[in-house]
Amino acid sequence: MHRVALNRKLSGRTLVLTLLLCWPLLLFGRPAYFADTLGYFHGGQTATAFLVRHFQPSTSSQTGSPTSRDEHDTRAARSIPYSVLAFGLRGADDAMTPLAALQALLTAFTVTVFLGAAPVSDRRYWATAAVLALATPAPWVSSFAMPDVFAGVAILAIATLSFRIRQLTTTVAVMLSLIGALSVASHASHIAIAILLAPLGVWWGGTMRGLSDRKALLWLAAPALIGIAAVVVAGVIGFGEVSIAPKRYPLTLARSVGDGPGRWYLERHCATERFAVCEIYPDKLPTTSNDFLWGPDGV
Length: 299
Hints:
By secondary structure, this protein is mostly helical. It has 16 helices and no strands. It is globular, with a radius of gyration of 22 Å. The N and C termini lie far apart (58 Å).
């Protein structure tokens, strides 16, 4: 039976596809940024400084490290694992170029394993790689200093483990599981994707043979279990909070208030119910989600 192994062919395909996916990065000389990019950067800086002080207290006075006051002022946090990754791979000029390169590499490896497990011929592989690099958003999203690319990587990794686990060697399966776990841990919405895909894989995956193949089921569940565990452990260490979304902004509530339904409900019930948000806004609720979260009196 054909098996996808970590060999020269897999490595060569992955490296070439990585370069193809990096063409926006090479063209512009830096990744693309979004307003939240700085939040991930600062979150990783705070988390890294926290760990350094925890294990090496004598370094707490180093210049540029966030103080304990910064930690207490952290009202909310984005993905801690991705934030640490973003800060650790910020590069010498803080441009986050190494982060974008790694995202392209992990994307290329996942795609290469998926196509190798199919399997496809060399001609079809390179045709697919060319289309992926020139006619899809993959290069742009890979070169974006945000965790968005990992939504697709998580889906593809879990799909490969669901349907093609028997075509993978143990080493490749472990690497794909770890990439999937990082993808799941990189954003709260990716956890929901993993939780949804796992039972679908069990139900639909032809290689699973129902619920009898425990080994296959374990591989399928690995990205979700490891990714969720990483998020929970990071939340416990950083905030003493056991949650799959520790210290998250109340984005859903803010959007509901901004779009109307949440605001209408609160306007009707604030007079009789003792909701915390009613105490914050005793007179008038904000009309936009941005004002609700980040306005002068934002939550």
